[in-house]
Design brief:
Strands 9-10-12-14-15-16-17-18-19-21-23 form an 11-stranded parallel β-sheet, sandwiched between helices. The radius of gyration is 28 Å and the shape is globular. The chain folds into 6 domains: about 1-95; about 110-260, Rossmann fold; about 265-350; about 355-430, Arc Repressor Mutant, subunit A; about 445-560, Leucine-rich repeat, LRR (right-handed beta-alpha superhelix); about 595-695, no CATH class. The longest helix is centred in the first third of the chain and has 31 residues, at about 25-55. The chain is of the alpha/beta class. Helix 11 packs across helix 13 and helix 14 runs parallel beside helix 16. It is built from 23 helices and 23 strands. Keywords: Plant defense, Repeat. InterPro entries: Apaf_helical, Disease_R_plants, LRR_dom_sf, LRR_R13L4/SHOC2-like, NB-ARC, P-loop_NTPase, WH-like_DNA-bd_sf, WHD_DRP. This is Probable disease resistance protein At5g47260.
Length: about 700
């Protein structure tokens, strides 16, 4: 009920600020106001009901009034949960201020043929005997655009729940996690079977609309926990895939719609719209040249959008003629490619300015699985530690990294995701990046990327000496004991392998060139081997969200290390080796080992430290920390726990003028004050776990 009231207050505030409030939101707020007094009465009665219940022993007959009370609690709780689920209004949420460095692109209008496909798909879904619809077509043809339009149409129909899922490589669990998140259910380390049971119980009896974007093969709805759509329950499922075979594999699909490339006239209209009238009118010869460029995209909406966006800033005949030459050269260089879209998209890569930076940053993004949300912060940190962003001033390097991400989003080579704090690659753009990174398919082992729950062991590679970057994520791997001759490997991402418990020392011994090692979100990983000492060039190490208990003494040998992430390592106890890492610029201990006098002394030895995340327990340690200006000013995230400010006093955080996130848990602090008026305007400061707020 507290969560529901918070949602109600948030929506009510926004409605009061809008000149035209949404009727659906008003009705929802009214329903919350009706249920609130019922919930409060039940909570008031709970004290006496618990006292009455405590008088009975095992085997006693419980009075009927207690049963009736229990039934009211269960019914009201279900109503509250339903209202919480329904209380997400995307057209209201979209009015929130965007996070920093988010590029908002204009929506792409549907062409006539796409509108016809949209109408056809909607007609299918309005038929009672069609419970599941499959939309298929080649990459970049506009399936996701069509699916998004379908979601928008049915969002406020009679469905109790609309769920949109971008399917990742770990198919079953990615869908389960998305559904559980949308339902607002609590979950921890449940198995897939437990999640399936929980989802089934939550969806059973609801009229849901499930949209699945990017299916690659058949789906077993029973394993996910999704009830089959039927005329009786009125539920609907829509999925997209590249192949008709994937549609056919799902025997429960009732209808199919194929999305094809645009006709020449439609392709030209889309290209003109993307380029813009100002550019097309800048010279009388440009429209004729623009038709040549548009025709090279072969009616593929993604290519037309990406190429059109790149050409929108070119307003001389010479630039257009050169672009036509680049397009022709890319296509002629690879005439036998089955998918002609890749050579066309490659022309954008060829035309990128500042080859040594933006090109490398773009190719780096291919290291992550398809449909994976990539945190912008992670990308920038990787690029800095790899030396791609080589600015001596770390803050300037970070700004440069975010500007490059913005450029790639404007060029439509990356897409905004994760509320603006993440990006992802369109599947076809990612294929192009991997193709280029592998020397146009000639050295496919330069980039090794594997992911998904079907993977149970490390990938098989013919020549490990050729591997430059490797990513192994979201697999079922439990132990890694291989000894790999990876003398050229610079980047190793081993993330989200939820069953990974052991990495042997021999695994790292021959990775002498490794610069970036990311082991985050391996929640069963309990230790790091001493042989990590052989990674003498390592600059970036991420162990966040692992079960690691201590840092090996061999870590002292990593003199090049500048970034160490130990956030959310709640089991960590011993970190004395940090005092030896004198070149550290970034150290993160948020929700990790608590600050004590020894750690405070060790941190003062790190003269290069620029960014610090800490966990502080108790007012004594906090006051000592605030008195050390160099440390206090470098803190960006602070987890404060079991801290009391006596006699109604006030806690001043003025010394932490770099603070961006504050997490308060189990504290007694009447008031917190801070003054950032003399500093550069910060991002929004996030405050978590705080039950009450002082003015």
């Amino acid at each position: 009920m507290q969560d529901l009231n918070a949602m109600r207050n948030d929506h009510s505030k926004r409605l009061s600020e809008e000149t035209q409030g949404l009727q659906q939101v008003k009705e929802w707020v009214s329903m919350v106001q009706e249920i609130e007094p019922r919930a409060n009465r039940l909570l008031d009665e709970s004290v006496s009901e618990m006292q009455r219940l405590s008088r009975y022993d095992y085997g006693s007959l419980i009075p009927a009034s207690t049963y009736r009370y229990s039934e009211k609690v269960l019914m009201t709780l279900e109503q509250v949960k339903t209202l919480r689920t329904k209380g997400v209004f995307e057209d209201v949420v979209s009015r929130r201020p965007l996070p920093p460095l988010v590029i908002k692109l204009p929506p792409i209008q549907l062409t006539l043929s796409q509108q016809n496909l949209f109408q056809r798909a909607c007609q299918f879904l309005e038929e009672q005997n069609v419970g599941a619809l499959c939309i298929y077509g080649r990459g970049g043809v506009g399936k996701t655009t069509l699916l998004t339009e379908i979601k928008n149409k049915f969002l406020f129909e009679a469905f109790g729940l609309v769920i949109f899922v971008v399917v990742k490589s770990e198919v079953v669990e990615s869908i389960q996690d998305a559904i559980i998140g949308r339902l607002g259910l609590l979950w921890g380390t449940e198995t897939k079977e437990d999640k399936a049971a929980k989802i089934y119980m939550a969806l059973k009896g609801q009229r849901f609309f499930l949209l699945l974007d990017g299916i690659q093969s058949g789906l077993d709805l029973d394993k996910i926990g999704v009830p089959f759509p039927s005329q009786e329950n009125g539920c609907k499922i829509v999925l997209t895939t590249r192949s008709r075979e994937a549609c056919d594999d799902n025997k429960w699909v009732d209808a199919k719609v194929e999305v094809t490339c645009l006709s020449p006239d439609e392709a030209w209209d889309l290209f003109q719209e993307t380029v813009g009238e100002n550019t097309l009118r800048s010279h009388q010869d440009i429209p004729k040249l623009a038709r040549v460029v548009a025709s090279s995209c072969r009616g593929l909406p993604l290519s037309l959008s990406v190429i059109g966006e790149a050409m929108s800033r070119k307003r001389t005949v010479r630039e257009w003629r050169y672009s036509i030459h680049v397009l022709a050269s890319s296509t002629a260089e690879f005439p036998d490619m089955e998918d002609g879209a890749l050579p066309v998209l490659k022309s954008i890569y060829d035309y990128m300015s500042d080859e040594n930076i933006i090109r490398l940053c773009f190719l780096y993004c291919a290291l992550f699985p398809e449909n994976c949300d990539i945190r912008k912060e992670d990308l920038v940190n990787y690029w800095i530690c790899e030396g791609i962003l080589a600015n001596v001033d770390r803050e300037k390097a970070e700004l440069q990294g975010y500007e490059i991400i913005c450029d790639l989003v404007r060029m439509r080579l990356l897409m905004e995701a994760g509320n603006g704090y993440c990006v992802k690659m369109h599947g076809l753009v990612r294929e192009m990046a991997l193709w280029i990174a592998s020397d146009f398919g000639r050295q496919i082992e330069h980039f090794v990327v594997v992911a998904g729950e079907r993977i149970h062991q490390m990938p098989m590679v013919n020549d490990w000496g050729m591997v430059r970057r490797m990513s192994v994520t979201s697999t079922q791997i439990q132990n890694i004991s291989d000894s790999l001759q990876c003398s050229e490997l610079t980047t190793l991402v081993l993330q989200r392998n939820r069953h990974l418990k052991l990495i042997s020392g021999t695994f790292f011994q021959r990775m002498t060139s490794l610069v970036v090692l990311d082991l985050s979100l391996n929640k069963e990983l309990g230790e790091l081997p001493e042989e990590v000492s052989s990674l003498v060039l390592l600059r970036f190490l991420n162990l966040s969200w692992t079960f690691i208990k201590g840092l090996p003494l061999g870590l002292k040998e990593l003199k090049s290390l500048i970034h160490l992430d130990l956030d959310y390592t709640s089991n960590l106890q011993e970190i004395d080796v940090i005092a030896s890492l004198l070149n550290l610029q970034v150290l993160r201990l948020f929700h990790s080992v608590s600050m004590d006098l020894k750690l405070m002394e060790d941190l003062q030895l790190l003269k290069s430290l620029k960014e610090l995340s800490l966990t502080v327990r108790g007012s004594s340690a906090l006051q000592q920390l605030l008195s050390i200006h160099g440390l206090a000013s470098s803190i960006q995230r602070l987890h404060l726990t079991e801290t009391t400010i006596a006699d109604g006093g006030s806690l001043s955080l003025n010394a932490m003028f770099g603070l961006r996130e504050l997490d308060i848990l189990g504290c007694n602090i009447p008031e917190i004050t801070t003054d950032w008026s003399s500093t550069i305007q910060r991002d929004i400061v996030k405050i978590h776990n705080c039950r009450t707020y002082a003015q």
